Amino acid sequence: MPKFDVSKADLERLVGKEFSVEEWEDLFLYAKCELDDVWEEDGRIYFKADSKDTNRPDLWSAEGIARQIRWALGFQKGLPEYGVEDSGVTVYVDEKLKDIRPYGLYAIVEGLSLDEEALRQMINLQEKVALTFGRRRREVAIGVFDFDKIKPPIYYRAAEKTERFVPLGFEEEMTLEEIIEKHEKGREHGHLIRDKPYYPLLVDSEGKVLSMPPIINSEITGRVTPETRNVFIDVTGWDLNKVMLALNVVVTALAERGGKIRSVKVVYPDFEIRTPDLTPKEFEVGLDYIKRLTGLELSDGEIRDLLGRMMYSVELVDGKARLRYPAFRDDIMHARDVLEDVLIAYGYNEMEPEEPELAVQGRGDKFIEFEDAVRELMVGYGLQEVMTFNLTNRESQYRKMLLEPGEDRFSHPPAELVEIENPISPKWSALRVWLIPSLLDFLSQNTHEEYPQRIFEVGKATLIDESRETKTVSESKVAVALAHPRVTFTEAKEILESVMHHLGFTYELEGIDHPSFIPGRAGKIVVEGKPIGIIGEIHPAVLENWGIEMPVAAFEMFLRPLYRAPYL
Question: What is the DSSP string of 205-236?
């Protein structure tokens, strides 16, 4: 969950009222945050805010928290309104960026008065939105520029890798290719565009470079200081809705600092759009639903007032609440999301808990406790736990692993996948039958991180079982993957050996020929005469399919055959 620092004085300036530290502990709850730490620096009090909602990037800065608290305390009610005027500025988007980084949306905020704390919050918001909501800039990357140093119109275009500019933090020009290889941000995020035929570049009408999305701004226009009064905001990514949401979050946060929002026309090869779009979103929920699930005796008017304190415009019609809510929110997907806002406004601390009247006794499931014990064991070996999706696709489970559908390699994987009849996306079209591909997928997305990378997962695999009513069975498995330049079969075997020893089992390894592993470096894990797993060094062709440049050794096995309660 996102964590970030905020100044007590800055928060109170934005809210319009002072509070004690103890009062702030409760106030943060209105913004779905917890007060994680308090300290004093240069005579000022600072808070460490720990956000508990990854779907509310509008709450990841002092501006967002203060806005939410102003409404929750009743200082303001209803839908926040932000005026947007046309700036007359146009950005043209190059068709060549379609398969590189296709979407860019823009806005201008004028009349700002930025002190050091405001600048810190602006940078923090950029980074947190791009890191968490933007999946480390893969889905969303944000740039903020001194608009007074820019000459419109502006062009978001595909550039040759030999083009040059001075990146932020440097004094000399570098080629785009050099930035990818040598600049700190290039090394961190270069994997997002390194293999593309062109690199994205944002330039003005005079050819001045604003940025190289999603890597780095330029030193000339990309440095915002307390003297900056007008800023140009650039958000790029792959999903137009996500890019728009991120833009709305940033511009409304700056508007909370007194800035005036100006729209920008963005011209694509096949359509035009004017941004930001702060048109309120709409939702409808039954009043009886809210009353029943909250368990509170609330009148229709009280529900309307509580929702008004959570920035909704509310119209009560025929037993329903017709809602309009801000464009910087994208988390209202079900009536329960509205219900949660009602409870936040009411105050969780104001609700009296009731003891449930149940004539049963509960206890933890022993096998779940066994899984947790295995997790602790793995952590003890210095492995990092990952949690990947059960949903996958045939390409990941078979083609990338050099397997043909229908092959039965000692149940790794079984003959067939359980596929979804009407998947929303081809990427999530089946339930996985083995975990090693999921670990390789994780490693492929972290090739820019330091090595060694030593990971594990205790997770589920879904297998076909015609004897069951559902025709499937969900089996618990443990998988381990080790990635670094000198990794060997022996290193993986040492961990396997120790796991078996701690669980009280002896096992045998039988050499096998498996397409996913290097010939002669793969084995079947056999316990009490039955194969329960596989171990080996991943085949270089498999690593190439996943885009992994480091050797990888891995093993995977079923946990149910190893379950013995006395060993917990």
Answer: TT--EEEETTTEEBTTTS---TT---EEEEEE
pLDDT at 407: 52
Whether omega for the bond prior to residue 326 falls within 30 degrees of 0, making it cis, is no
Closest C-alpha to 153, from 220, 198, 108, 200: 108
Two tokens, residue 326? 């801000």
Alpha carbons 424 and 204: distance in angstroms, whole number: 39
Least confident span in 138-142, 153-157, 560-564 = 560-564
What dihedral angle (degrees, nearest 10) is formed by the CA atoms of 297, 298, 300, 305? 180
The answer on whether 42 is annotated among ligand-binding residues is no
Q: Are 24 and 8 in contact (CB under 8 A)?
A: yes
Question: What DSSP character marks residue 167?
Answer: B
Q: What single-letter amino acid sits at 334?
A: H
Q: Give the whole-angstrom CA distance, residue 120 versus residue 163.
A: 31
Q: Which domains does the chain have, with CATH numbers?
A: 1-75 (3.30.56.10), 81-275 (3.50.40.10), 282-348 (3.30.56.10), 366-562 (3.30.930.10)
pTM more than 0.70: no
Q: DSSP string covering 470-516, please? A: TSEEEEEEEEEEEESTT--HHHHHHHHHHHHHHHT---EEEE---TT
| Amino acid in position 135 | R
272 is in an annotated binding site: no
Taking the C-alpha atoms of residue 157 and residue 523, their distance in angstroms, rounded to an integer, is 51
Angle between helices 21-30 and 62-72 (to 10 degrees): 90
**Residue 491 marked in a binding site:** no
> Which pair of tokens denotes residue 184?
């700190």
Q: Tokens in use for 199?
A: 């690199």
Q: What tokens appear for 452 in the block? A: 């060694």
- The amino acid at residue 537 is E
Q: Any binding-site annotation on 331?
A: yes
d(CA 413, CA 527): 18
Closest to 377 in 3D by CA, of 535, 507, 495: 495
- Strand 260-267 and strand 84-93: pairing? parallel
Residue ranges in 256-323 assigned as alpha helix (H): 287-294, 300-308
Task: State the sign of the Cα–Cα–Cα–Cα dihedral 556, 557, 562, 568.
Answer: positive
Cα 204 from chain centre: 31
Q: What is the pLDDT of residues 168-223, one digit of tens each?
A: 888 899 999 999 998 989 999 999 999 999 999 999 999 999 999 999 999 988 88
Alpha helix stretches (DSSP H) within 129-269 = 176-182, 184-189, 240-255
**Distance (Å, whole) CA 314 – CA 308:** 7
**Cα radius of gyration (the chain):** 27
Query: What SS3 class is residue 342?
Result: helix
Distances 299 to 290, 306, 312, 525 between C-alpha atoms, Å: 10, 11, 17, 64
Between these two residues, 450 and 157, which has the higher pLDDT value? 157
Alpha carbon distance 90, 153 (integer Å): 5
Q: What would the pLDDT profile of 462-505 be if each residue is shown by its tens digit?
A: 888 888 888 888 899 999 999 999 999 999 999 999 999 999 89
Please state, in angstroms and as integers, the Cα–Cα distance from residue 527 to each residue in 111, 130, 180, 486, 562, following that order.
Answer: 72, 47, 49, 29, 9
